Amino acid sequence: MEKKINQVSKAQKREEMIKSAYAIFYKNGFHATGVDAIVDSTGISKRTLYKHFTSKEGLIIAAVNYYHQIMYGAISDYIEKPVLDNPVDKALMIFDFLEELVDAGNLDGCFAMNAKTEYAHKAAEIESACDVHTKSLIALIEKYLSEAEIKESELLAVQIMMLFEGAILRSKATESSSPIKLAKSAAKVLCSQY
């Protein structure tokens, strides 16, 4: 019984560290955030941090995985809730989700894209964790495009994702949801050509 409680306690401590690191990385960036800042915010020792994560990069990967889990779930739930007859309209709701986030003041961009950008060609494992998020969103979009019987649904899903990522960057830079509306319009035009 005590061993089970100890395992739960370790898992909770690990999750607390991930959530705290996630918030700090999101706000300050990855290179700008040192391990000391994470240790200070969690109140745990460096030794404990390194016991759970072998390196700062290991903690970043865990934070990217955490982001993917919550963000993919939120997007998927958002798309599934409304009853729309047209699967293409459902696929394009990813833009509506982003627009609502930005209009609510979430202007820090995509955590996975931020990590991928900071670690491009420097840390393959971090890039790989970021790619899981992107590929999952592409697969989600492609699922609806397939339902619409679009023959080149995979290619179109990648194109829509490129518009989505561009909208994220532009909305972050302009602190406005206008680029998202433009990207969704462009995605509709693309979809009409298939």
UniProtKB/TrEMBL annotation:
Residues 11-71 form the HTH tetR-type domain. Residues 34-53 bind DNA. Keywords: DNA-binding, Transcription, Transcription regulation. InterPro entries: Homeodomain-like_sf (IPR009057), HTH_TetR (IPR001647), Tet_transcr_reg_TetR-rel_C_sf (IPR036271), YxaF_TetR_C (IPR054156). PANTHER family: HTH-TYPE TRANSCRIPTIONAL REGULATOR YJDC, TRANSCRIPTIONAL REGULATORY PROTEIN. This is TetR/AcrR family transcriptional regulator.
